[in-house]
Specification:
The protein is mainly β. It has a domain at 16-64: Hexapeptide repeat proteins (UDP N-Acetylglucosamine Acyltransferase, domain 1). It contains no helices and 8 strands. The chain has strands spanning 16-17, 22-23, 28-29, 34-35, 40-41, 46-47, 55-58, 63-67. The strands form 3 sheets. A 4-stranded mixed beta sheet has the order 2-5-7-8, with no helix packed on it. A two-stranded parallel sheet has the order 1-4. Strands 3-6 form a two-stranded parallel ribbon.
């Protein structure tokens, strides 16, 4: 809250994780982020911006490292 006005300056926002998303170990997702379907977030990444569909993101301020991916859960 702002001391002078008493109004909240850091409002809450939802995180949206869509279908068929893989999150690596120890991932941090900031408020207001949308992770679109068929995406992968690498372990130890900090996601500060929304992730486009069918992409891999990685890094301390997660960046897209590959697009156009697809993956399946079927066993061989």
């Amino acid at each position: 809250m702002s001391v002078e006005s008493g109004q909240r300056i850091n409002t809450a926002k939802d995180i949206e994780i869509q279908n068929h998303v893989w999150l690596g170990y120890n991932v941090n997702i900031n408020k207001g982020v949308i992770i679109e379907e068929n995406s992968v977030v690498a372990g130890h990444s900090v996601v500060t911006k929304s992730v486009p569909s069918s992409s891999i993101v990685a890094g301390l301020h997660a960046k897209v490292v590959k697009t156009g991916i697809t993956w399946s859960r079927t066993r061989v």
